[in-house]
Design goal:
Blueprint: H1 2-28, E1 32-41, H2 45-53, E2 67-72, E3 78-83, E4 89-98, E5 102-107, E6 114-124, E7 130-140, H3 143-153, H4 157-173
Antiparallel strand pairs: 1-7, 2-3, 3-4, 4-5, 5-6, 6-7
């Protein structure tokens, strides 16, 4: 029994040490980050623009978003609230919009442990395809999350997931 107890205590101490190391490493990492990914999508620019700006349709092709609702603030700002599979909602607003060329979407509240913006830049590619460059200018506040995102998940994981599902959605819809 004593050996089992010592083993459990040693494991707990090892886990606490690992958590402490991850916390300290995360605290030393920059709070802000930038990740940029460019992909060639099998659709014309107008179809890509329509897909990335039709927020209500997004739950139909991107599994990370379970529902979207809109809200218009007193100053006229339109927020889109994206709900995940845990029911948590994150509000987004448009920071800049040049139809068919550039879209900047910004997380609209400060009280989350993360935040920032996604910038979508569209350009023509050969054969009627579209090059979409997606840039995340973000931040992660909790040091543990910072280290986990950088080392285990990838700072661009959500971007890659979004782009993969967008590409599948556009391919299924066919070129427009």
């Amino acid at each position: 029994m004593k050996i089992v107890l010592l083993g459990v205590l040693a494991l707990a101490a090892l886990l606490a040490l690992a958590a402490f190391v991850i916390y300290v490493a995360g605290a030393r990492m920059p709070r802000q980050h930038r990740s940029r990914i460019a992909v060639t999508l099998p659709a014309r620019r107008a179809a890509v623009w329509a897909a990335i700006t039709d927020y209500a349709a997004m739950p139909g092709w991107w599994p990370a978003v379970k529902a979207v609702r809109t809200e218009t603030l007193a100053d006229g700002t339109v927020l889109t609230w994206n709900a995940d599979d845990h029911g948590r909602e994150v509000p987004f607003r448009t920071g800049e919009s040049r139809p068919g060329e550039k879209l900047v979407r910004v997380i609209a509240i400060d009280r989350l442990p993360y935040g920032g913006s996604w910038t979508y830049e569209l350009a023509d590619a050969p054969g009627g395809d579209t090059v979409l460059t997606l840039t995340e200018d973000g931040f992660i506040n909790p040091p543990m999350f910072r280290a986990m995102a950088r080392w285990f998940i990838g700072l661009d994981a959500t971007q890659r997931d979004f782009l993969s599902h967008l590409e599948q959605h556009l391919a299924a819809a066919g070129k427009n």
